[in-house]
Amino acid sequence: MNALTATVKRDLTGAWRHIGHFLMVPVFFVLATVLFPLAIGTEAQLLTLAAPGLLSVAALFSALLPLDRFFEDDRRDGTLDALVLSPEPLALFVAGRMLSHWLLTGMPLVLIAPALSVMLGLTGYSGYITGALIPATVLFGVAGALGAALTLGAKQGSVLLALLIVPLYIPVLIFCASAIDCARGGESATTPLLLLWALLAFALPAAPLVTGAILKWQLKG
Amino acid sequence: MFHYANPKRFEKISRPVLWAAGVASALFFAWGLYLALIASPPDYQQSETVRIMYIHVPAAWMAMLAYSSMGMAAVGMIIWKHLLAGLYIRAIAPVGAGFTAICLITGSIWGEPTWGTWWVWDARLTSVLILLFLYTGVIALADAYDDRDKGLMAASWLSLIGLINLPIIKFSVDWWNTLHQPASITSLAKIAEPSLDSSMLVPLLVMAAAYLGLFIALAIVRIDNEIAARRIETLRVRRANG
Amino acid sequence: MAEYFDMAGYAAYVWSAYGITLGIILAMIGASFWKKVRLKEAEESLLTTNEHE
């Protein structure tokens, strides 16, 4: 078992102890989505037009919530120090952490979104919504890991983290919302979907390596 | 160039370069303002408001240039541990943010008579707005650690990541813009950028040179400040340790 | 002359844009030199108190 699978196993079994921390994410997603009709009215056309953007923004905000604990527990109990000293590349640990993070916080959003979209008047686009939200939520988590590594031990870390990764989130947001919106409008969603998955293909190998390098610097000084 | 990466050596060349940049900038400003406000003609469609372009567009160029230079300096800091590169990033991030603010504010003022609204979600203004967030992040992160050197490295990492992200942002915003703008505004946006013949291009370039000279001068003063701050920190630590 | 300052009716826009730009530039220059002066004072006071020890 290498560092990646070991990390995923440890995170998933340990998640039960912090279950509230993780449940908060899909709960917030539902709340945020449901609040919009209450705020902007139930005019069906307006809701349907706005739905792709609303869903994507709600997913973005939900993704921000669990980020301050991304590496914090491991830093505090010394696990990170041990990992930095171990011979296994830190990138594997980071990749494992990103995977378990997505399974716990990203995948629930992907599963709930089609049902929520119906409430926003967006029926029959589940395929596009899922196809857009999978890379989007993974990318939100990946960028979040980068931000968490950069702000490890910084003053006002959580606020700073949000500020730092919003620019990383914006292209993802644009393509995710556009993909769903193109589907809604009957246009081809191929370009934004391809761009999303291309971003994912670029980020998946690169981000764990960069995050690992940043973590190594953080702990070794 | 690496020869001057040593802060002590930097201080020796910084004086003359500061004077040269400062004087050059002042001269370019004088000439540029004369061209922008007096010698250049009003635009066929936008009348006198086109004069705002001469302070708006070069500011956008400087905002982008400054951030790119921060990204490149970040490589120097991360890979070669050149302290001067890290000091450069912390020194000029606020200056870059200043040019970004100039670009956004003048863009907004220009937009009201041109498009009838104080803010337009066109590709350039939106990209520059995101750039402002990028700058704010670097400024905040550079000061977020008690250990100032840690802040330098963190800010360097962020600048590098931001630099890689910048073309992605530009591409996505440009793409988003063509997707959502009704045709009328797109053509209005083209009108707002009059085809540049020399009577308009020259003032633009002169103002750009003025901004660049100002940037270099400010960079030198602010890096000197960073070096002095480090010296003071060392003195304080030495005193505290007896 | 008054006609020139009027900027074909757009005076408020053109002059406020130039004014704000000048303001921000002066603020950047001012802040940098103010900090330079303060740092010099701090360093000098640190060095002179060191001598007294």
Question: Could you characterize the architecture of this molecule?
Answer:
The complex is a heterotrimer of chains A (221), B (242) and C (53). Chain A contains nine helices and no strands. By secondary structure, chain A is mainly alpha-helical. Chain A has one domain. In chain A, helix 2 (19-40) packs parallel to helix 6, helix 6 crosses helix 7 and helix 7 (126-150) packs parallel to helix 9 (190-220). The radius of gyration of chain A is 18 Å and the shape is elongated. Chain B has seven helices and no strands. In chain B, helix 2 crosses helix 5 (148-180), helix 2 packs across helix 7 (198-240) and helix 3 packs parallel to helix 5 (148-180). Chain C has a domain at 18-53. Helices cover 89% and strands 0% of the residues of chain C.
How would you summarize this macromolecular structure in one to three sentences?
Chain A has helices spanning 3-15, 19-40, 44-64, 72-76, 79-85, 90-119, 126-150, 157-184, 190-220.
Give the tags:
heterotrimer, A: 221 residues, mainly alpha, 9 helices, elongated, B: 242 residues, Four Helix Bundle (Hemerythrin (Met), subunit A), 7 helices
**Major sheet size, sense and barrel closure of chain A:** none
Shape of chain C: rod-shaped
Largest sheet of chain C: none
First-residue to last-residue Cα separation of chain A: 29 Å
Beta-strand content of chain A: under 5%
What is the C-alpha radius of gyration of chain C, as a whole number of Å? Answer: 22 Å
Mean pLDDT of chain A: 92
The total number of structural domains of chain A is: 1
Structural class of chain C: mainly alpha
- Total strands of chain C: the figure is 0
Question: What form of chain A results from the Cα inertia axes?
Answer: elongated
- Biggest interchain interface, per-side counts: B-C, 34 and 28 residues
Instruction: Name the helicity range of chain A.
Output: over 70%
Alpha carbon gap, first and last residue of chain C: 66 Å
Structural class assignment of chain A:
mainly alpha
SS field, number of helical segments of chain C: 2
Give the topology.
The complex is a heterotrimer of chains A (221), B (242) and C (53).
Chain A lengths: L2 H13 L3 H22 L3 H21 L7 H5 L2 H7 L4 H30 L6 H25 L6 H28 L5 H31 L1
Helix pairs in contact in A: 1-6, 2-3, 2-6, 3-6, 3-7, 3-8, 6-7, 6-9, 7-8, 7-9, 8-9
Chain B lengths: L6 H33 L13 H28 L2 H33 L7 H20 L5 H33 L2 H10 L5 H43 L2
Helix pairs in contact in B: 1-7, 2-3, 2-5, 2-7, 3-4, 3-5, 3-7, 4-5
Chain C lengths: L1 H5 L4 H42 L1
